[in-house]
């Protein structure tokens, strides 16, 4: 698995996951939409931690900076 998420992309995902988690656990978002939000939060957290997004790989997107040798 080659990394395809850069640091800014990872930070944005983590911030969005934190906001979504807060909205769910504070009771602002409930029901089916709340469940979908929790699933999206988990996906954002996992992809941020491992620096790999399967959708980015499918579409050929890479936000990871190119390393110079």
Automatic annotation (TrEMBL):
Query: Which terms are listed as keywords in the entry?
Result: Membrane, Transmembrane, Transmembrane helix
Q: Where are the transmembrane segments?
A: 12-27, 33-59
Q: Which Pfam families match?
A: YgaP-like_TM
**UniProt-listed InterPro entries:** YgaP-like_TM
Say which domain of life the source belongs to: Bacteria
Annotated Inner membrane protein YgaP-like transmembrane domain ranges read 1-66
Q: What is this protein called?
A: DUF2892 domain-containing protein
Q: Which organism is it from?
A: Fontibacter flavus
Lineage start: Bacteria, Pseudomonadati, Bacteroidota, Cytophagia, Cytophagales
């Amino acid at each position: 698995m080659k990394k395809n998420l850069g640091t800014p992309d990872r930070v944005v995902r983590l911030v969005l996951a934190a906001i979504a988690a807060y909205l769910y656990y504070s009771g602002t978002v409930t029901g089916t939409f709340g469940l979908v939000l929790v699933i999206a939060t988990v996906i954002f957290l996992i992809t941020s931690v491992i620096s790999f997004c399967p959708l980015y790989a499918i579409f050929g997107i890479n936000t990871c900076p190119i390393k110079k040798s």
